[in-house]
Amino acid sequence: MLKPILLATALLFASQTAYAAAYEDAFAAYQKGDYQTALKLMKPLAEAGNVNAQYNVGVMYNENLVKQDFAEAAKWFKLAAAKGNVFAQVDLGVQYEYGKGVGKDYTEALRLFRLAADKKNPTAELNIASMYERGIGVPQQDYKEAAKWYRLSGDHGNADAQYDLALLYVSGRGVPKDEKQAAIWYRKAADAGNASAQLNLGAAYYGGQGLAKDVKQALKYFRMAAQQGNAHAQFNLATLYANGEGTPQDLPRSLIWFNAAAVTLTGDEAKIADQNSKEVASKMTQEQRLAAQQIGRKCLAGDYKACD
Question: Taking the model in full, what pTM does it have?
Answer without folding.
Answer: 0.87
